[in-house]
Amino acid sequence: MDQNKKKQVCFLWKEAYDEMIRHCLQASPLEACGLLSGKGSSCEKVWRMINVEKSELSFAMDLGEMDRTFAAMKLADHKFTGIYHSHPTALPIPSDEDIRHSIYPHAFYFIISLKEPKPQVACYLIDQLEAAEVEIVIL
Ligand SMILES: [Zn+2]
Q: Residue 13 C-alpha to ligand 1 middle, in angstroms?
């Protein structure tokens, strides 16, 4: 992580924050995943996605479901602004695989850790195999 860069800020609506955690707790012990949308660059709405890998250690989304979700976002006059997945037993730090598979450098990349009794959420921007932590501001 590049600590010299000033930390960016991500605005996340409280309902979206709560919904992400709810989804991840329901899917546990499997990893959950989903997308976020909003106006401008905020993350306002959660779109739950199916983890087609049905794994406790990884996730992948179905491309058809992603296309349909991007279309639904457009209809809602929203932009795709974020992506999330859970770490049922690990800290909210992107794994090497997360970083390698990340293909949306402008999307806020949330990881919800269920390792501790109280879920922990962290957010990153991942670009060119570099993850920079982003400060979350809950609205
Ligand atoms: Zn991960």
A: 22
User: What's the 132 CA to ligand 1 centre distance in angstroms?
Assistant: 15
Whichever domain contains 37, its CATH number is: 3.40.140.10
Residues in the chain: 139
- Asked if the structure places residue 131 within a domain, the reply is yes
User: Which tokens hold the place of 136?
Assistant: 């979350």
Q: What is the pLDDT of residues 38-51, one digit of tens each?
A: 998 899 999 999 99
85 C-alpha to ligand 1 centroid (Å) = 7
Please check whether residue 3 lies inside any domain of the structure.
no
Q: How far is the CA of 79 from the centre of ligand 1 (A)?
A: 23
Question: pLDDT, tens digit, for every residue of 116-134?
Answer: 999 999 999 999 999 999 9
Residue 81 located in a structural domain: yes
Bridge partners of residue 113, in order along the sequence: 87, 120
